[in-house]
Write a structure and sequence with these properties.
Order of helices and strands: HHHEEHEE
Number of helices: 4
Distance between the termini: 58 Å
Structural class: alpha+beta
Largest sheet: 4 strands, antiparallel
Strand order of the largest sheet: 1-2-4-3
Helix content: 40-55%
Shape: globular
Strand content: 15-25%
């Protein structure tokens, strides 16, 4: 590995670690402010939603991808392009429902959960719930209403983190009355 490549790798790793630690400080502050895990989960989801709403524009510009044709293609783009672009991981898309309206993203390594141990008193905390909100917000901007939640969490003893995404409906642009 060349010196330049080595430095770039080290810088990327440091930026990732700084992001992880900053996120941890944010979650810690939310726990102090809201006390109940359910309220913290709601705040993380809300923050993630707002991030997703804003991030989708950047994603579309940087990825140069067109509109996805179906939910399977959308799932692949989320896992192979979006997660790779923003978190430098590639979750596995799996566990499709029979109706093809629901799938899982399996995160072998969740970069948000690095250096984290959940205290037993916070067993209801969805520590990385910002990811659920970000997916929901981004897809809503692309006219897809989805529900997202964690089915499994490595921070709670599971072997991997499993984020579930369920398609609810296609949204239509709200046009002013009388316009088509």
């Amino acid at each position: 590995m060349s010196k330049t490549t080595g430095r770039a790798f080290e810088n990327k790793k440091l930026v990732g670690e700084l992001f992880t630690l900053t996120y941890g400080a944010l979650v810690s502050q939310l726990i102090k402010d809201y006390e109940k895990d359910d309220e913290v989960n709601k705040q993380l989801d809300k923050m993630g939603y707002n991030i997703g709403v804003r991030l989708v524009e950047d994603f579309m510009a940087r990825s140069n991808l067109g509109k996805c044709q179906d939910l399977r293609e959308t799932a692949d783009v989320i896992a192979k392009v979006a997660f790779k672009m923003y978190l430098n991981i590639t979750p596995v898309v799996t566990n499709w429902s029979l109706a093809n309206d629901e799938f899982s993203l399996i995160l072998e390594n969740n970069p948000l959960a690095e250096f984290v141990e959940l205290p037993e008193r916070h067993s209801d905390l969805s520590y990385a719930n910002v990811l659920c909100g970000a997916i929901r917000g981004a897809l809503e901007m692309l006219q897809l209403e989805v529900e997202t939640w964690f089915l499994k969490d490595a921070l709670k003893g599971d072997t991997a983190t499993e984020l579930r995404v369920k398609f609810i409906k296609k949204l239509t642009d709200a046009l002013p009355a009388g316009e088509d």
